[in-house]
Specification:
By secondary structure, the protein is an alpha/beta fold. The chain has 9 helices and 8 strands.
């Protein structure tokens, strides 16, 4: 079983509509044995989306999920700069809609208190929270979170499951930053496949806290799968990373929504 934590619907995919682009994503992913795909953000992104833009982005994902409900899990894109609108979108897309998770990008650092109402509502709804993190050599965007920022948030909400997107870009610094926070898993998608990264993650965090994703179509399924299929880990750990951990993390909200998998 392979489930992909991290996919998008960019113009690199064929098709005009979100559902058509999702169909292309699924077609290619299934060649690699991928069964389910988590998708976030619509066609074309903004780092600091307005309330109107948030709705447009999430409408794209709703349309994609409606077109492929047996294959896609939608995550609602939120902007902590606009807290009230973000809460409205959580209600619209998760509480009253089919989405099962939250995607946070670079508008505001996740260590800031503005995120608290969003995290609290997401937890109440059992929605999985995926936070983009990166450590750029050239310097992060003004609101871009690092793994250390996520550690601050995790310390405020130790019972809320969080995902450290991209393994922070620099996994050698990210793993120590979040190691002591057992509620934080890492997402393996969207950085170059490097020998040793998965082995280090399993050693430092345990296989239960490592989740595979691709960041397709920005990254290829094959290169990102290679991180796990080529890692020197046992088959039980490999199975957890490629799908078992994500299935377990999504379990509470899927059960609450009556969604069979």
């Amino acid at each position: 079983m392979i489930w992909d934590l991290h996919c998008h619907l960019t113009n690199a995919l064929r098709g005009e509509t979100p559902a058509e682009k999702a169909g292309h994503l699924i077609e290619v992913g299934e060649r690699h044995g991928i069964e389910r795909f988590c998708v976030y953000m619509g066609i074309g992104w903004e780092r600091d989306p307005s309330p109107v833009e948030l709705v447009r982005q999430n409408d794209d994902i709703l349309a994609a999920v409606e077109g492929h409900p047996e294959k896609l899990f939608g995550f609602v894109y939120l902007n902590p700069v606009h807290v009230e609108k973000s809460l409205d979108e959580l209600k619209r897309c998760v509480r009253d809609g089919p989405m099962v998770g939250v995607k946070l990008w670079v508008a505001r650092k996740c260590s800031e208190r503005e995120l608290d109402p969003i995290v609290e509502m997401a937890a109440e709804l059992k929605a999985v929270i995926f936070q983009h993190t990166w450590l750029k050599t050239t310097g992060n965007y003004p609101g871009e979170s690092t793994p250390s920022d996520l550690a601050v948030l995790a310390g405020r909400y130790p019972e809320v499951p969080l995902i450290c997107g991209h393994t922070g870009g620099n996994w050698e610094l990210a793993l120590p930053a979040i190691r002591e926070h057992g509620n934080v898993s890492i997402g393996l998608g969207g950085f170059d496949p490097t020998a040793g990264v998965v082995e280090a993650a399993v050693r430092e965090l345990g296989a239960e806290r490592v989740i595979w994703g691709s960041d397709a179509p920005g990254r290829s399924f094959a290169s990102q799968l290679g991180k796990v299929t080529g890692a020197e880990i046992d088959e039980e750990a490999r199975g957890k990373i490629l799908g078992g951990n994500l299935k377990q993390l999504l379990g509470p909200i899927l059960k609450a929504k009556g969604m069979a998998v």
